[in-house]
Amino acid sequence: MTQDTMAEVCLNTTDLTGDIAFFNRVLGMRMMSIFPADDPAVAVFAGHGCRLRLARGQGPAGRLRIMTDDTEFGQGATELTAPGGTQVSILPRMLPVEQPQTIHAFVVRRLADQAPWVIGRAGMHYRDLIPDRLGGSIIASHIRIPDGGPVPDTVHFHRVGFQLIFCYRGWVDVIYEDQGGPIRLHAGDCVIQPPEIRHRVLEASDGIEVIEIGVPAEHVTEIDHDMTLPTPHLRPDRVWQGQRFVFNQQRNAVWQDADLPGFVARDTTIAANTGGVAGVLVLRRSAGNPTWTQHNADIHFTFVMEGEMQLEAQDHAPFKLSAGDAFVIPPGLRTRYADPSEDLTLLQVTLPGRFVTHPG
To answer: Which of 57, 99, 109, 29 is nearest to 302 (CA)?
Structure first.
């Protein structure tokens, strides 16, 4: 691309004379050209990383968004209307991540129900595990890449409150800002991607499958065209908005009795490294009989990785679950994981990470 290539956004104006003063004095943009001289019909402005072509005539009004942390910009207004009709919104450069209030629901999503796989970013296939997303508070996706090899990804980051990547099948290579060279996640391994950590998916095995949890459900992914990975500095203890990067490997697992009767748990250390924002446990069938319990977590999501069980919930018909199924239990609902197979293995994600499970 040559340096003399440029682009303009064309806007209609019903008052070019008024717009010239508005775009110059109020919005702080510089007029680059105007014509014809005797009766101007077109004026071109540049500023704030944008070039605008205002053309006199009738037509729908355009909209301009300006992002700035200058509270005095635009005379302190957040919404303005140019004399010629253009709507101007003035926003912070970085909008804060807002967590919607959770709309609690008992949700069961079964693989056998054949929910559609949707092709998403970088050609990956997505299956939605929480269709209503609890009012926008969380998104849980079962992601697969049918054909292995290099992944057409770019360096990017997410504006999130919490994000988990759990490798369910196969392996995947990912590289992260300030964490050294590429890391390979094998089945059973997981990472948390702290808010705004730059990263890139490099390569994956045939049939790779991961579970991805994001909070809130709708969050922005931004491409970083300037950063090259790996970064020159190794900073494993760096903190992003109160969270540390975690790479937890199944081969180093330590199993302890779980709060849930009849199960042992592997703590991924995510609760400790997020300051209790979220907790991630792998649960495995152990000695003892499952009993009725209830919890006080705001969000309590579980994915069945291996084996079978019957999910019983107060005032609901039981569900026979197997590998690939997922469910959400709202706080205070009495449930029991009945008839678990010996190989039953569950991925449990809770927000906050510290909560109470007690007999129901």
So the answer is: 109
